[in-house]
Automatic annotation (TrEMBL), chain A:
Entry protein name: Multiple sugar transport system substrate-binding protein
UniProt keyword annotations, A-Z: Signal, Sugar transport, Transport
Domain of life (superkingdom): Bacteria
Signal peptide range: 1-22
Organism whose genome encodes this protein: Kribbella caucasensis
UniProtKB/TrEMBL annotation, chain B:
Name recorded for this polypeptide: Multiple sugar transport system permease protein
Bilayer topology term: Multi-pass membrane protein
Annotated ABC transmembrane type-1 domain residues: 74-287
Name of a matching Pfam family: BPD_transp_1
Cell location: Cell membrane
Gene3D superfamilies: MetI-like
Major subcellular location class: membrane
Organism: Kribbella caucasensis
Similarity section: Belongs to the binding-protein-dependent transport system permease family.
PANTHER family listed in its UniProt record: ABC TRANSPORTER PERMEASE PROTEIN, DIACETYLCHITOBIOSE UPTAKE SYSTEM PERMEASE PROTEIN NGCF
A single cellular component GO annotation: plasma membrane
Length: 438, 296
């Protein structure tokens, strides 16, 4: 009897092994037959489901297959694997990086011909997010307006005027410092403040000259931006709270010890829900400007919904992507029923009809009525001077490390820029890409 | 003879599941990594065209062997290992000896309690400690402040202490259990005769028990060396809290991970992995050679 059991066990094991082996080679068949074209879409955003449902309910020739991904890095890994394997490739993927870098990795399909007829449905700066050298490799995703919110109560308490320029912020910081209050927060992992300041100055870290890249980390615009951040750090007027430890961060912001916060519309729900002490004290204000700015400018650099290389139905994928980004149906389906807010429709020329619901009821207290005006003014003033090079993924990782050193005063921002200039040029050369010495 | 051969084959057949798994999940990936490491992906022009994969021989290895960042991370982890591994072994040994000295039923309870941290998945362990260490919401900073000490577990000075403490917390139970198991196997007559000869409990512990568990200690030390040189998830999570201390190339595996999955540079990542595997192999072999002599 035990012998038979052994045999069964061995057989079972063998079957398991065989099925593991078979699992490696199977799967991935393309359903290109009769019936509607199926467009597989990957996102880690659960709310997309509502929009997908709306599409599938209103379209019969094309259907979207929604595949939920865990998060940003997992999506990136899965897509790289799928493209490398040449099978199971989706047709639309939520943006997880900059289009030029992903294109340089060989991950994206050229959808210029398919997208061209739809371009007028997008606002002008949004279109740049999907463009590389005049060709398009995804569906423009747009951007949210940049603005700032300040803890007005603490500002008033210490008789500090509402800041209009970055110099005002630095001056305000010096006053707040005497009371143990930080004027802003520069998280050690997030160099976006520097990036946004360079964009606001009209600069870019990459440019193309002929058939070569020009790297601009040491450009006047970059130095102008670095000068502002350097003053913030040197005067000890900023905090370095990480964004990773959310409960700690929210508690800190709520405490009245940090009083100005460049932010986005989508983050407001979080503050509304979690601020206890400071709820109602905040005021949305225009993003501070450079003192010598010729006109009111905000950085606007959009991304794109990616169309991966290997997608069999580029035309349908583009149509689905455009529908999701710009159609009335799609925007209305994206409504968050709990909060009554639409995700900011950053792709369409006029977002005005969809923004009222995004104003949080309590956070801004008496200043609630100012929010929409601040947002729309910012959206209108958005400029995208930002060009991204093919190695920006690696460059950004390096920048994060350098940023962490600079905000903790281990290096200066000038040194950061010099280091990044050299790193970027060397890295491009190592990858075999043409670089013109500045 | 034929019957014997048949039986031998039958016996060997039982190892097939292991070897099939080993081949599929270890040998094949190693060969694939080896082949990947011999190639390089290069672009041209503005870098947007189809990248070309070319055979580059040992170029990636030369680059890896001279890469200051990689070796910097390697030395950082090596230094950490030299301190933390012996520490964990000594603590575990002491705990095993103490457990061995108390009554069995009582020991069983402690054994379980001490093993609980080991049962918690590594990521969860790290999350628990990240919370405990947090200068903002964690309880430890206020605790030390109570004594007038301003302790920041995320600072550059303390980060390795923080990671080491986490590793010890998670690993001591396991090492102790192995050592305790070895102690249980020591024939009781030896202790009896030692006691008859008038040896104190300290002398018994040092001259009889410790030599008997040496092999087990060597085994867990080798496992610790392998594990520590490949340390990854702990520093990666610490990085999210304190990127100004833990940079992206903080440990060898973090650098490899970053090359492969953040920058998409699989060729170089493969070469670095192979170099790391060789280093781990050589270090473990040397350690094993030096320590695993038969007990005197």
């Amino acid at each position: 009897m035990p012998r038979t059991t052994d045999r069964w066990l061995a057989g079972g094991l063998a079957t398991c092994l065989l099925s593991v082996l078979a699992g490696c080679s199977g799967g991935g068949g393309d359903p290109a037959g009769s019936g509607p074209v199926e467009i597989e879409m990957w996102t880690w955003n659960t709310s997309t489901q509502q929009v997908v449902d709306k599409f599938n309910a209103t379209h019969s020739d094309v259907k979207i297959k929604f595949v939920k991904q865990a998060d940003n890095p997992t999506t990136a890994t899965n897509l790289r694997n799928a493209v490398a394997a040449g099978q199971g490739i989706p047709c639309l993927v939520q943006n997880f990086g900059e289009v030029p870098s992903l294109l340089a990795e060989g991950l994206l399909a050229d959808v210029t011909d398919q997208l061209q007829p739809h371009l007028q449905q997008f606002n002008a700066p949004a279109v740049k997010g999907a463009e590389v050298q005049g060709r398009y490799y995804g569906i423009p995703g747009g951007a949210e307006p940049s603005y700032m919110m300040i803890n007005r109560k603490v500002y008033d308490q210490h008789r500090v005027a509402v800041p209009k320029t970055w110099d005002d912020i630095i001056a305000a910081g010096k006053v707040f410092k005497q009371h143990g209050v930080k004027v802003m927060n520069l998280a050690g992992e997030d160099p976006s403040t520097l990036v946004n300041l360079v964009m606001q100055a009209g600069g870019s870290w990459y440019g193309v000259k002929g058939d070569s890249w020009q790297v601009g980390f040491t450009s006047p615009e970059s130095k102008k931006a670095a000068n502002i951040v350097q003053q913030l750090v040197d005067n000890d007027i900023v905090a370095n709270q990480t964004y990773q430890d959310r409960p700690a961060l929210i508690a800190y912001f709520d405490d009245g010890k940090m009083v100005s916060l460049p932010t986005n519309v989508w983050q407001l729900g979080n503050y509304e829900k979690n601020f206890k002490k400071s709820i109602g004290n905040w005021q949305p204000i225009d993003l501070p400007q450079y003192a010598d700015a010729a006109e009111f400018t905000t950085p606007f650099h959009g991304g794109a919904t990616l169309v991966p290389k290997g997608c069999a139905n580029l035309k349908e994928a583009t149509e689905v992507g455009v529908w999701m980004a710009t159609s009335k149906d799609a925007i209305e389906a994206s409504l968050d029923k709990e909060t009554g807010a639409y995700p900011w429709p950053g792709t369409i020329p006029d977002p005005a009809p969809y923004v009222d619901g995004s104003v949080p009821p309590k956070l801004f207290g008496a200043h609630k009525g100012e929010a929409v005006g601040v947002w729309l003014k910012s959206a209108k003033a958005g400029k995208d001077s930002w060009v991204v090079g093919p190695n920006y993924t690696a460059v950004f990782k390096e920048l994060q490390d350098q940023w962490a050193l600079a905000v903790t005063k281990k290096i200066t921002f000038e040194q950061l820029l010099d280091h990044m200039q050299k790193f970027t040029v060397d890295d491009l050369k190592a990858k075999g890409v043409n670089v013109a010495e500045a | 003879m034929r019957w014997r051969t048949a039986m031998a084959w039958k016996g060997a057949a039982f190892t097939v599941p292991f070897f099939a798994g080993f081949a599929l999940f270890t040998v094949v990936p190693v060969l694939m990594a080896l082949s990947k490491s011999m190639y390089s992906t290069r672009s041209s022009g503005l870098g947007f065209g189809e990248p070309v994969v070319t055979f580059s021989g040992l170029e990636n290895f030369t680059r890896g062997l001279t890469d200051g960042r990689f070796w910097g991370s390697m030395w950082r982890v090596a230094l950490f290992s030299v301190i933390v591994i012996p520490l964990i072994q000594v603590v575990s040994l002491l705990m095993a000896l103490m457990l061995d000295a108390i009554r069995r039923r009582l020991a069983a309870r402690f054994r379980l309690a001490l093993l609980i941290p080991y049962m918690i998945p590594g990521i969860v362990q790290t999350l628990i400690w990240i919370y405990l260490y947090s200068p903002v919401v964690g309880p430890l900073s206020p605790f030390f402040r109570w004594f007038g000490l301003d302790v920041n577990f995320y600072s550059g000075d303390l980060i390795w202490v923080s990671i080491g403490n986490l590793m010890a917390w998670g690993g001591v139970g396991f090492t102790m259990l192995i050592v305790y198991g070895a102690l249980q196997a020591v024939p009781a007559e030896i202790f009896d005769s030692a006691r008859v000869d008038g040896a104190s409990e300290w002398r018994i512990a040092w001259y009889i028990k410790v030599p008997f568990v040496r092999r087990s200690l060597v085994l867990v030390s080798v496992l610790s060396i392998i594990g520590t040189l490949q340390i990854f998830s702990d520093p990666l999570l610490f990085r999210s809290m304190t990127p100004e201390t833990v940079n992206k190339d903080f440990t060898p595996i973090m650098m490899i991970y970053n090359q492969a999955f953040a920058e998409g540079n699989f060729n170089y990542a493969s070469a670095l992995s192979i170099i790391l595997a060789l280093v781990v192999g050589v270090v473990s072999a040397i350690f094993y050679r030096l320590t695993n002599r038969a007990p005197v």
